[in-house]
Amino acid sequence: MSGSGDGGRDGLATVLRAPVAARTWRELGFVLTGLPLSTLYFSLAVTGVALGAGLLVTFIGVPVLAGVLLLCRGFGHLERGRARVLLGMALADPAPVRAGGRGGAGAGAGKSGVLASMGALLKSGSAWRHVLYSVIHFPWAVFSFCLALTLWAWGWSSLLYPLWFWVFPAFTNQPGLQLFQNDDYSFYLDSPVAIAATCLAGLLITLATPWVVRALTSVDRVLIGGLLGRSRLDDRVRELESDRGVVVDTAAADLRRIERDLHDGAQARLVALAMDLGLAKEKLTEDPQGAAAMVDAAHGEVKVALQELRDLARGIHPAVLTDRGLDAALSSVASRCAVPVKVAVDLPGRPVAAIEGIAYFVVSELLQNVSKHAGARGAGVDVWKSGGRLLLQVSDDGRGGADPRGGSGLAGLAERLDAVDGVLLVDSEEGRGTVVTAELPWRA
What we know:
Elements: H1 2-17, H2 22-54, H3 61-87, H4 106-123, H5 125-159, H6 161-164, H7 167-171, E1 177-182, E2 185-189, H8 192-227, H9 232-283, H10 288-316, H11 319-324, H12 326-335, E3 341-346, H13 353-374, E4 379-386, E5 389-396, H14 409-418, E6 423-428, E7 434-441
Parallel strand pairs: 3-4
Antiparallel strand pairs: 1-2, 4-5, 5-7, 6-7
């Protein structure tokens, strides 16, 4: 009960403080400055678009329209700044307009560059959204300005009426503020009851005005966010560019790993094998038994080198995955794990090869972590399809405490999954084991 009472007191205090709160004055400032700016935006945008459209029968209309679009993007920059300062909106600028083509050299290149820039502006959805904002925000700015200013002026003037009503009898020969006049009858706010009622009405209007202004600016937030910010397409392009960088870095790291494994493993072993065989050849006539022993040792080295090459090839893309799918490939990985692993794969078919390969790699890495770091007695791998997503879950009963934010291999797995619109979730409490769930697009 005390918590409910504290919440009620906090709410009442918020309502009473709202008329003098800094946020209210910032939002009111946004509404009041919006009308003159919006008038400017509307006038220039409508005039420029009409002029440009009318001149499209000649080539002059193209640069006029491009100039209007560029001007409206400048208006958008100013509006985002106003929203950032007065409304506290953290709004990213839209993507810059880039010309698609490249010109040649000299004056021709400059001319081609200007034409390409104008064409890019005319095809830019972001630029046209800025024009749309300049047009449709004007009537809303008029309505917001009139309503906010009227409520603010009436509220404060009525609330403070007891402090200034003396002006009427002192300077106008009227007993108070005249509300209306009907023939010979006039009603003035001059009695104590009328003055008190006016003050009370002013208090109510003053307390309500901040919330009305907040509702008005919420519409401005929607307009600015929807028309002047980054579009979903822009965000998607940025995400894909980032993911492409992750894919390139991951591929380069894999190539370096393969080169290192070949150089330090099979290649070094084969070089030593060639030297041993050369020595055995020299000893063949002088010491046949010694040469036979060296050949026998070389034979063992060949087997080791072949196993290393098989392991390396399996790490790149195992043949069993290509031939028999995830079920057989993951069962093969589980059989090499240091702890017993139960594998359950329930799939109606096979996803695309790229997704299948990433799923295999993720499970392999997670089972390696179980073998090296978990201290587990057992683990489990579950794979299933849900809707259009492929889900993998690797669990163990080890010590837990895995943290993907610590720059570990889990962070690398998360980046690799993110590059293909995948997700990695880690649930790992100390002493309670670890459950890692990966989600990938199916893309069959």
